[in-house]
Amino acid sequence: MHRTQHLLTFVFTSLALSATLAVAEDDSVAAVTQAYQAAFNAGNADQVAALHTKDAEWIDSDGNVHSGRDAIRSVLTKAFAAAPGRTIEFAVEKVRPLSESVALENGSAVVTSPDGERAVSAYTTVYVKDSGTWRIAQVTETAPEVAPSPASRLSALRWLEGTWKGENSRRPVTLKIAEAQNGNFLTINYSFGEEGSEGTSTEVVGFDAAADSVRSWTFDSEGGFSEATWQSDGANWLLVSKSINPDGTRASSQLDIRPAADGKSFTVEGYNRESGGVPMPKLGPIKFTSAE
Questions:
Q1: How confident is the model at residue 21 (pLDDT cuts 50, 70, 90)?
Q2: N or C end of the chain: which has fewer CB within 10 A?
Q3: End residue of a domain, out of 122, 142, 162
Q4: The pTM is what?
């Protein structure tokens, strides 16, 4: 019984000692992080550099490697002079002691310029105990992944912008295609017949982030509307659309868009067409030529 009590006492004492060590490491490393933030916000490159070991390494978010305390001081001196007034704020996520003289910190940093512009990066810092003082041995920054903007998702369709005239069709067709809403959408204005005498329609093309695909919505002058998904096949595009006719019946079709190699024309061909449950004849091919 006494032996068991001694064993439990040893175990609990060891656990308490480990917990105390972890807290001590956290507190000491936290002090370095706070000192770094204060020195950076004061624009003092010497004080920031002094928190590093002599042979410290800093890998910034662009992948540049700065080796040694003097190199780090030089980079920071130039950065503070080029952009005075910037501040940094750390959000420490985790500090993990690896031994009595090594600790690892993970977190994120936000650098804010005087005009309010913010730059965010994740970081991993290795601390070592240097002559009894915790110092930074290595910092590795990682720029956060930035999701492509809706505008960039439409980059493969930018060649469509402009005015196009349709040939070999039963009626003249004019397309006027332009970007809208900061480039996040394309608008396609259709004009059928001479100056729209046989009807018009407007199509809005955008990127659907939830579906991870390009989609479009079309509204015509007779009250019908449709939506389509756009699928790329190299330079070509396949549109699969479903429509509601003005009388409430449903329609569907598939459309191929094939650009010419010179970028000055493209052909449109429709197939698998039906309206109100009745199969419709194949459409085209219709050749569109740039009118600009």
A1: very low
A2: N
A3: 142
A4: 0.55
